[in-house]
């Protein structure tokens, strides 16, 4: 059986308004059209459907049974289109900043405290945060990006955000169960690894001259945020990166049991198009971000 062709949207809008208001005149006023145009579009709709939708009387109109059944469907579809159009293309989206970055940065640096601070300073800007880690790094996605690495990307502007050091972190609950008095005590704990970073447990243990700990032992994860969540819950020990754990160290959620801190060869960087910002709101966010990480402002 052949499907009925979808009627033009302007015909459906005319039908919905006339059926809702039970008046061609009021529908014409609402849609800024003439009564004749409304009437003609509804006649065209009825012809395509091969079904009358209205009972036309001398001074009024009524819906037929088919019109009564069709109205809620058309009304709902138009409402969904209006809502979706406003959500995607509305006034607020002209002030939106699209940012791609790691889940760890968004969860642990750009946290609730800092987001609240940003909103207080820039209440007119909406942020859209994208944590898609599978996009190719050489391709810009959004207005700006927060990348982890050595800052050696080509074809983009790069501003360093952090100067990280690496050191073991764990929860107070874990230390209460199994103390860490010296570095070699790590052999009694679950070491949590994050894949994809140049420095890991092997580099830190060598830096700390720990000879009795096997750096290959322990679970591996592909996201740093997952590892920190487990550590905060009291499971295992991970290498903390200063820019991501400073708040937790301050409030006591995490503890750094040892003083040895290995300078990282990789850091967080602000990355934005080589030609600069086409979105002025993105530049405002980028300037705020740089001031709150490195204390610098964007170059003019």
UniProtKB/TrEMBL annotation:
<keyword id="KW-0804">Transcription</keyword>
<keyword id="KW-0805">Transcription regulation</keyword>
<keyword id="KW-0238">DNA-binding</keyword>
<dbReference type="InterPro" id="IPR058163">
    <property type="entry name" value="LysR-type_TF_proteobact-type"/>
</dbReference>
<dbReference type="Pfam" id="PF00126">
    <property type="entry name" value="HTH_1"/>
</dbReference>
<comment type="similarity">
    <text>Belongs to the LysR transcriptional regulatory family.</text>
</comment>
<dbReference type="GO" id="GO:0006351">
    <property type="term" value="P:DNA-templated transcription"/>
</dbReference>
<dbReference type="InterPro" id="IPR036390">
    <property type="entry name" value="WH_DNA-bd_sf"/>
</dbReference>
<dbReference type="GO" id="GO:0003700">
    <property type="term" value="F:DNA-binding transcription factor activity"/>
</dbReference>
<protein>
    <submittedName>
        <fullName>LysR family transcriptional regulator</fullName>
    </submittedName>
</protein>
<feature type="domain" description="HTH lysR-type">
    <location>
        <begin position="7"/>
        <end position="64"/>
    </location>
</feature>
<dbReference type="InterPro" id="IPR005119">
    <property type="entry name" value="LysR_subst-bd"/>
</dbReference>
<dbReference type="InterPro" id="IPR000847">
    <property type="entry name" value="LysR_HTH_N"/>
</dbReference>
<dbReference type="Pfam" id="PF03466">
    <property type="entry name" value="LysR_substrate"/>
</dbReference>
<dbReference type="InterPro" id="IPR036388">
    <property type="entry name" value="WH-like_DNA-bd_sf"/>
</dbReference>
<dbReference type="GO" id="GO:0043565">
    <property type="term" value="F:sequence-specific DNA binding"/>
</dbReference>
């Amino acid at each position: 059986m052949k499907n009925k062709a979808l009627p033009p949207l302007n015909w459906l809008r005319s039908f919905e308004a006339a059926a809702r208001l039970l008046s061609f005149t009021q529908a014409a006023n609402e849609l800024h059209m003439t009564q004749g145009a409304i009437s003609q579009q509804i006649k065209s709709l009825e012809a395509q459907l091969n079904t009358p939708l209205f009972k036309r009387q001398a001074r009024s109109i009524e819906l037929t049974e088919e019109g009564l059944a069709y109205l809620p469907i058309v009304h709902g579809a138009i409402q969904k289109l209006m809502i979706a159009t406003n959500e995607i293309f509305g006034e607020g989206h002209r002030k939106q900043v699209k940012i791609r970055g790691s889940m760890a940065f968004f969860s642990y640096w750009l946290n609730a405290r800092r987001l609240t601070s940003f909103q207080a300073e820039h209440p007119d800007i909406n942020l859209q945060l994208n944590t898609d880690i599978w996009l190719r790094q050489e391709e810009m996605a959004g207005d700006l990006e927060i990348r982890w690495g050595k800052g050696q990307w080509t074809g983009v502007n790069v501003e360093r955000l952090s100067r990280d050091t690496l050191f073991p972190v764990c929860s107070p609950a874990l230390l209460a169960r199994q103390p860490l008095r010296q570095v070699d005590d790590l052999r009694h704990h679950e070491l949590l690894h994050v894949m994809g970073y140049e420095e890991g447990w092997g580099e830190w243990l060598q830096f700390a001259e720990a000879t009795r700990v096997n750096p290959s032992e322990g679970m591996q994860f592909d996201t740093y945020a997952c590892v920190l969540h487990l550590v905060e819950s009291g499971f295992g020990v991970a290498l903390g990166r200063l820019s991501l754990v400073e708040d937790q160290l301050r409030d006591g959620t995490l503890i750094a049991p040892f003083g040895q801190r290995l300078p990282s060869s990789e850091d967080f960087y602000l990355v934005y198009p080589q030609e600069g910002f086409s979105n002025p709101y993105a530049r405002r966010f980028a300037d705020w971000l740089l001031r709150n990480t490195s204390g610098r402002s964007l170059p003019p």
